[in-house]
Amino acid sequence: MASGSTEHISFELVSIARGERVERVDPDGEAVLVIISGQCTVEAGGMKAEMSRSDVFDEPATAVYVPAGVPVAVDAGQETDIAWCLGLAGPGGEVALITPEQLECRTVGRDTYERRVCDIVGLGVPAKHLVVGETFNQPGKWSSYPPHRHDEDRLPEEADMEEIYYFRVDPPQGFGMQRLYSPQAGFDRAVVLRDGDVVEIPEGYHPVTAAPGCDLYYLWMLWGEQRVLAPFDDPEFGPVKERL
Q1: Three state DSSP letters for the chain
Q2: When comparing pLDDT for 244 and 65, which is higher?
Q3: What fold, for 9-241?
Q4: Confidence of residue 101 (pLDDT cuts 50, 70, 90)
């Protein structure tokens, strides 16, 4: 964590054994369920959908958006890992299934900071506060770069949003690194990223890099009162950006 814990969002990797069923309802939180691996059936708000994925590095995501107060049940047809992204929200809204064909994927950056980004619950999905997606770093490359933050509501330059990253590494004994820093809040630290790590980012800049020979993936979830994507680049990197 950077200088504290997130207040409006939480993350849990829910592991479900084959043949088991998980039932939940959160009256105060909207949820995005993203399959990480396995095969399962999800039921929520009258919707029933199948989700399957061999691995985050090999197949695209399928996800379900569940509004606050709506019961959800997951039945695992085989051992399944579900990323359960939860954000504080009031009631109302519709359950939405996001299929691989609906993902909004793009290449961001170039050269040593090129990465692939896929929006899962983007601004086109009518969530109240959550935005969820995935980033894929090739070995030795950077993402969340140039460094940016989203600490203050001062649109159009910046929107205040909390964030959580969930990491996977291929091969699993590999690693990445993340710098978490804020001159305003007075912290600057580096974090070694291992397979399965979770990093909470309540504030500050947060660039990521993958070690040579290691593919790095992270699921990111953002929570904002306004639900507007307006990251603010570190102004000290102005001369660096001119060289990119």
Answers
A1: CCCCCCCCEEEEEEEECCCCEEEECCCCEEEEEEEEEEEEEEEECCEEEEEEECCCCCCCCCEEEECECCCEEEEECCCEEEEEEEEECCECCCCEEECHHHCEEEEECCHHHCEEEEEEECCCCCCCCEEEEEEEECCCCEECCCCEECCCCECCCECCEEEEEEEEEECCCCCEEEEEEECCCCEEEEEEECCCCEEEECCCECCEEECCCCEEEEEEEEEECCCCCCCEECHHHHHHHCCC
A2: 65
A3: Jelly Rolls (2.60.120)
A4: very high
Quote the CA–CA distance of 211 and 78 in Å, as a whole number: 32
Average pLDDT over every residue of 128-151? 97
Residue type at 162 in one-letter notation: E
Alpha carbon distance 231, 234 (integer Å): 10
What is the structure's pLDDT at 3? Answer: 44
The tokens for 236 are 């000290």
Q: Where are the domains of the chain?
A: 9-241
